[in-house]
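Structure tokens please, single chain.
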Amino acid sequence: MSATTTHSRTPSPPTPDLRVVVADDNPVVRAGLTALLSGRADITVVAEAADGHEACEAARRHRPDIVLLDVRMPGLDGISALPYLVGIAPVMMLTYSGEPEIVEEALRRGADGYLVHGEFTADQLVTAVRDIRDGRPHFTPTAAGAMLRRLRASGANAYEVQPSTYSREQSIPLPLSRDSSLPWMPSPPNSPETASRVQSNVGQSSRLRFQLSTREAEIMDLIASGMNNQQIAATCFISEKTVKNHINRIFAKLTSTSRSEAAAKWLGTAVGSPRGLG
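Here you go.
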């Protein structure tokens, strides 16, 4: 009788975690993004940052696979922090600022993608994060439209997006204090940094459109990010009963009967929405 040899199948190696730094000065947005991304098996948020300095420090310390970066932040803003950050990891702008000048400057300084809040779903954000890590850029309609209008206005030959001059293998010194002058790319007159400082508050357009209070808008952002009532209560330091009361009022104002329907209207992806992706 011949011996039977059993060949065991070699298990495939586990997919490495995609390590992310989230930088945004709004704690509600940071918490929502962290909860959303950390809920995916292959993504880990290794650090959060409230301004450009913290983003640079977190990137230097953790060496993430991607940085999600807001434009408007106190102290050192996202545009000013870009040249340092792109020397460490791909950077995707994730912001409410969609002006052509800001989009253009972000790309000139090395950003690999540009997403404007309200123009993507949670799944689309996760896909964009994975794609940016793999070298595939992503732009939401406002950013893409801004670039197209800019190209047409200035002429394709007059405008070229310059690749970043910073190699991710380079060692770029991090400013030692928040008062230090950055050694790169001084801001030109009428720079995007200046323009970004006069942008409306986070979620202002959606809040006004649906006549939500500031607290209701914060909670709606967290609902859209995928948080449940318990997580929202912990994030906002309120009781779950208070969260439910807010949600009832939100649903009434958005004329919605479910979280998914409310989120679709809030993000502009519902059928007939003026901000839908189409």
